[in-house]
Write a structure and sequence with these properties.
- With 578 residues, the protein is of the alpha+beta class.
- Helices cover 19% and strands 30% of the residues.
- The chain has 12 helices and 28 strands.
- It has helices at residues 134-139, 231-235, 266-269, 284-289, 312-317, 353-365, 406-420, 430-442, 463-473, 491-497, 530-542, 545-556, and strands at residues 38-47, 60-67, 74-79, 95-99, 106-113, 125-133, 144-148, 159-166, 172-181, 194-201, 207-212, 227-230, 242-249, 257-265, 278-280, 298-308, 321-329, 373-379, 381-383, 388-390, 393-394, 403-405, 422-423, 448-456, 478-484, 504-505, 508-509, 515-519.
- Strands 17, 18, 21, 22, 24, 25 and 28 form a 7-stranded mixed sheet that branches. Strands 4-1-8-7 form a 4-stranded antiparallel sheet. It has a 4-stranded antiparallel sheet with strand order 3-2-5-6.
- A hairpin with a 4-residue loop joins strand 19 and strand 20 (388-390).
Length: 578
């Protein structure tokens, strides 16, 4: 209903029912999917670059490329300036990028020695390149990644240092309050029941709703309650972008009457209470019809207060580690792994659904874990040598040390387990949840946060115990992602997700929502493009993690640790442009 982008001017402001089917004016939850989680600024420095010039040192430039998800094509994102005559450049021009925790953004930094004014890179000497992900930079200590430059066989090409800095405007929220005077009377028997609707403008000139005030009943001079909104949601961090505010008279049947509108911008609003922030409410239809029309009332800004929020990146930069654990369903309902119909079938040419879900989520999370050692567990199988059933066994066969090195290590242990355990049952989640909860309970100081990925084919056998485990875990620094594979009905999983009804056990409700469930079948790309399927899956299951992480820190009053002191490079003076 809301959040749909509507080209400017499409709605007829004069007609009743100016807002489509708006039955009630309740809390409006901004859809954040179209707004980047935050913007980061990348600074690039190099040390000991190759010297390609005979009589002087190289004149380096850095070119950044990003990679499209589907076809893997590299596209140029931007270039720094050229710095003359140095092998240790500290580039001044920054790269500003949108950052999403839940997306894997592959980056490539190419370095050239510039020999002429030509913008064509093939005319200049290649000095090497460095590949990484944006998450790798952000997840490094102090958000500072140092990596070797490669690409010229047999040569040491030097190192590159990339530092990420979150842009301040993305973390600001504003607390605003408005009142209105002498609004048009729209109700036959009483006065109007006014409320405001705020829209931010988009690049293409359309508008997206971003906030609705409450209704103030039976007055032409309402004073609305102060409300808080992020600067991202209000104007996407662009202080001069148009903000359109519409004034409506609320009607019980949902056909709210349009009173009028005005436009402003974040920059104008930030002047605070002043003569600049008294707005005439204009109804274009009335203005066109009546010669003596002045306005339909005025709206005044009463207060404007900027608050800076601590962000997910503040904690990561301060050294908080994300610990990733994976738990895989080895119950018999998955089918015999040697048969192509099995969900665990080991196809030599293609990952099975378990492998895809594991890689999709794991490859993103591993950037935030410094040691890249992940516990990998299985449940619902009979183990050698005696055939006992286990709901919490180490995939690598070592219960004392279930850690695997990187996602590749987890995949290896998963395939190894398939060859030596017998798929059995039942499907019990509580043991693996309690396993991670024991670790999470031992570090509640904000230095670590735990993410458990459970991949399952469905029907859960220990629902009551699992609910109890989740309610207990909701007090701990942990989140649970459940990916359902195969064709089963996943009603029980939806219940665990708790998005509709907060999960409870024996009368106790979960302190916060920590479970995210998705069925893998919703992400199978019909064209067979598994890369796209995996990217979409990762985006949906990981999107809630930063907010779940912040909700834990906020409830516990844990502030981010100070980041290590920033790297300050020596200053170079000589710069030319390309």
């Amino acid at each position: 209903m809301f959040g749909l982008e509507k080209p400017a001017g499409q709605q007829e402001p004069g007609r009743s029912g100016g807002l489509p089917k708006m039955a009630s004016v309740g809390d409006f939850n901004v859809l954040s999917s179209s707004i980047p989680a935050t913007k980061v600024e990348l600074s690039v420095s190099c040390r000991n670059l190759l010297d390609r010039d005979t009589f002087s040192k190289s004149d380096p430039i850095c070119v950044l490329y990003t990679q499209a998800i589907g076809n893997k094509e590299w596209r140029e994102f931007g270039r720094t300036e050229v710095i003359d005559n140095t092998l240790n450049p500290d580039f001044v021009r920054k790269f500003i990028m949108d950052y999403f925790f839940e997306e894997r953004e592959n980056l490539r930094f190419d370095f050239y020695d510039v020999d002429s004014k030509s913008p064509n890179l093939s005319k200049h000497d290649f000095l090497g390149q460095m590949f990484c992900t944006l998450g790798e930079i952000v997840g490094s200590q102090g958000s500072r990644l140092e990596k070797s430059i490669v690409g010229i066989p047999g040569k040491k090409c030097g190192t590159v240092i990339v530092t990420a800095e979150e842009l301040g405007c993305c973390r600001d929220s504003v607390l605003m309050q408005f009142c209105a005077n002498k609004l048009d009377k729209k109700d036959f028997f009483g006065k109007s029941d006014p409320f405001l609707v705020f829209h931010r403008s988009n690049e293409d000139g359309s508008f997206t709703i971003c906030h609705k005030t409450e209704v103030v009943k039976n007055t032409l001079n309402p004073v609305w309650q102060a409300f808080k909104i992020s600067v991202r949601a209000l104007c996407n961090g662009d202080y001069d972008r148009t903000i359109k505010v519409e004034v409506y008279d609320w009607d019980r049947d949902g056909s709210h009457d349009f009173i009028g509108e005005f436009t402003t911008s974040y920059r104008e609003l930030s002047r605070g209470q002043s003569q600049f922030n008294v707005y005439e409410v204009i109804n274009p239809k009335k203005k066109g019809k009546k010669k003596k029309y002045v306005n339909s009332g005025t709206v005044t800004l009463l207060s404007f207060l900027i608050e800076t929020e601590v962000s997910f990146l503040d904690y990561i930069k301060g050294g908080t580690q994300i610990n990733f654990t994976v738990a895989i369903d080895f119950t018999a309902s998955n089918g015999n792994p040697s048969q192509p119909t099995s969900l665990h079938y080991m196809n030599p040419y293609q990952l099975n659904a378990y492998g895809m879900a594991l890689r999709a989520v794991g490859e993103i999370i591993q950037d935030y874990d410094s040691d890249k050692m992940f516990p990998a567990l299985g449940f619902g199988a009979r183990l050698p040598p005696d055939g006992r059933v286990s709901h919490e066994f180490a995939l690598n066969g070592n219960p004392q040390n279930p850690y695997c090195h990187g996602i590749d290590g987890v995949m290896e242990a998963y395939y190894r387990s398939l060859k030596c355990v017998q798929l059995y049952g039942p499907t019990n989640f509580a043991p693996v949840i309690n396993h991670v909860a024991r670790y999470a309970a031992s570090v509640k100081d904000g230095s670590q946060y735990f993410v458990l990925l459970i991949i399952t084919d469905g029907v859960i056998s220990d629902m009551a115990q699992t609910k109890e485990s989740i309610v207990n875990a909701s007090k701990l620094p942990m989140s649970i992602i459940i990916v359902g594979v195969g064709p089963a009905e996943f009603d029980a999983m939806e219940e665990l997700d708790g998005d509709v009804v907060r999960i409870s056990s024996r009368g106790r409700f979960a302190e916060r929502d920590i479970v995210q469930f998705v069925p893998f079948r919703d992400y199978i790309d019909r064209s067979g493009n598994h890369v796209l399927s995996m990217a979409r899956l990762a985006k949906d299951v990981l999107a809630e993690i930063p907010e779940q992480f912040l909700s834990y820190m906020r409830v516990r009053g844990i502030k981010p640790s100070p980041a290590p002191p920033p790297y300050t490079p020596p200053i170079h003076v000589l710069q030319t442009q390309i």
